[in-house]
Amino acid sequence: xxxxxxxxxxxxxxxxxxxxxxxxxxxxxxxxxxxxxxxxxxxxxxxxxxxxxxxxxxxxxxxxxxxxxxxxxxxxxxxxxxxxxxxxxxxxxxxxxxxxxxxxxxxxxxxxxxxxxxxxxxxxxxxxxxxxxxxxxxxxxxxxxxxxxxxxxxxxxxxxxxxxxxxxxxxxxxxxxxxxxxxxxxxxxxxxxxxxxxxxxxxxxxxxxxxxxxxxxxxxxxxxxxxxxxxxxxxxxxxxxxxxxxxxxxxxxxxxxxxxxxxxxxxxxxxxxxxxxxxxxxxxxxxxxxxxxxxxxxxxxxxxxxxxxxxxxxxxxxxxxxxxxxxxxxxxxxxxxxxxxxxxxxxxxxxxxxxxxxxxxxxxxxxxxxxxxxxxxxxxxxxxxxxxxxxxxxxxxxxxxxxxxxxxxxxxxxxxxxxxxxxxxxxxxxxxxxxxxxxxxxxxxxxxxxxxxxxxxxxxxxxxxxxxxxxxxxxxxxxxxxxxxxxxxxxxxxxxxxxxxxxxxxxxxxxxxxxxxxxxxxxxxxxxxxxxxxxxxxxxxxxxxxxxxxxxxxxxxxxxxxxxxxxxxxxxxxxxxxxxxxxxxxxxxxxxxxxxxxxxxxxxxxxxxxxxxxxxxxxxxxxxxxxxxxxxxxxxxxxxxxxxxxxxxxxxxxxxxxxxxxxxxxxxxxxxxxxxxxxxxxxxxxxxxxxxxxx
Length: 695
Ligand SMILES: Nc1nc2c(c(=O)[nH]1)N[C@H]1C(S)=C(S)[C@@H](COP(=O)(O)OP(=O)(O)OC[C@H]3O[C@@H](n4cnc5c(=O)[nH]c(N)nc54)[C@H](O)[C@@H]3O)O[C@H]1N2
Ligand SMILES: Nc1nc2c(c(=O)[nH]1)N[C@H]1C(S)=C(S)[C@@H](COP(=O)(O)OP(=O)(O)OC[C@H]3O[C@@H](n4cnc5c(=O)[nH]c(N)nc54)[C@H](O)[C@@H]3O)O[C@H]1N2
Ligand SMILES: [Mo]
Prior knowledge:
This protein has 695 residues and is α/β, with parallel strands linked by helices.
């Protein structure tokens, strides 16, 4: 905050103050409390400084205890994103061929009329299932995301099984173990004595947790990072354990084997609050003695012993579980095994102990009022990871029109080559709603300019903390940009939908989330609200216990006990392609939502792949050269960096970068649309390939 400013933070919502330097009109600065709408577990409360209708500065809001007054290096610069010269200012209609990016402006009325005409004709001839429409996660507001999906629900179109590229595997696996509940409160990590970031690059994707962790470390807590690569988090840990990709279940089971062997289990906790430990102990753990575990994971026996010893010493052990390790063929088993570990020492029973993947399950909100206002309960669901093949292959009826908001699947979905091939279909009427001309938007028939979160008001709830908050809009929409809410309300009215949510302002829709629920507070005025969380982990499984053995999984034909087996399809692929893909969001360019911020693009640098020096040497590849990444799905070209931050046999591709930045293609053109063992998730890291000099 400016040293000269007087800011009254006690008044919620809109805050006005003078700059002492002058009383002229241009010196009015409005400070608006907003909520960061980007896809991130932290959900910052932010203060947007606004002058003459423009955001001039963004800073963290000191009144939010978890995000505590600092914003990450990306969001700090969102004034540049919202006022970027690359913003789309009007609706556009395609002139050239699909993908060429040749468009002419048209009015909103003409654009909406054309969309509605086409949809009505498609519905008349082939029914609503011939339309697929969705909004994805780039606007985390429950109304901007939810109402767009509610609109397609009410229309009875085909719908997206959303989240499969992201968290459905870890969410399902957690649910099968602990139930539909959140994990440990991240704010209690300050009281932990041992903190483990298990497959989670805190510095990149959960930076406010890192700040809390620092407080615990000052009090003497030990910090261990478990990650196949030396991530920026791992390089700052007291100890970095580097298992092979996809072997976390074996690692966790190996640690459990030692805890049992040495009599270090909390038998009382296991008997009272878990189900099936006896079977795990008899049927699974004997196979994970240290020598075999070391062979599978690549973690030396001495390290396994030391890790088990550290873990057994305290119940105040907090495991922050990341999503990355579940994006492999056996990802669900990995999560279930890691989530079982805190039960063995009883860590789930104490404040500062336990595990956290997501907190979503704790928010008992009436989402359906917005997401499912009316329309058929059942419809045809399309897995997000299979978007390309479904658009190409579905019949009875085929998809004739596609509406995408807040998502860039031509870059971020698996089989991105298939996605582009599908988007190029001349008989697919495609509408893309985005603030920017993305790789996906280039294929659209109609592009609609979207606002960013700074131009919208909405209700937010975090997926990595226990806060919810209403965020006001900081500025009026840039150009002719419309929010997701405004677009779907205008479309709903034209399509004749009568549900009240399609004609209410956001501030009234807010109340819908709380109908019949347990939160009675005036959320709009309250600022950041903590919903409360018990110190001991609650279990909402059928048995009311932590289900090490899951009957629900058994009924689905999935192994009911956490286990690890080599994956036959991965083994087969690895015989043909010697390197395994490792992928994770990069710090300055996670996914593509910040691609229009030139400063952040430059800070991230050009798109690269990273190989271990030995792998580069055996292939005669030198740092800084162009290389082709090749497998059965295609070839892409990136700049090579050589570094021992990755293991031998692995190629790391940070982030997902668009066509204008990469030399050719994007990494997801190499990733298969195979699904995980649980939750139908994406398996980006079950991708095998070779790296060669580019010609
Ligand atoms: N600032 C910011 N925050 C974000 C996001 C963002 O774009 N920006 N994106 C958000 C989204 S959508 C998501 S899904 C989350 C994702 O964030 P995380 O949950 O942190 O998951 P990933 O970044 O996918 O992977 C984290 C780490 O897992 C490691 N890893 C990969 N495979 C394995 C494995 O087999 N075993 C182990 N132990 N580790 C492995 C990777 O090397 C990586 O360092 O972050 C969210 N947070
Ligand atoms: N190789 C590989 N691929 C991955 C991953 C990985 O780790 N590795 N991670 C996966 C994961 S976890 C995720 S969540 C996905 C994310 O993938 P995407 O959902 O495609 O995320 P972004 O690339 O950020 O694209 C979001 C788009 O929404 C736009 N947008 C922003 N705000 C708004 C708004 O308010 N309204 C509208 N209409 N549009 C808006 C942005 O400009 C941007 O174009 O990627 C997945 N893909
Ligand atoms: Mo994600």
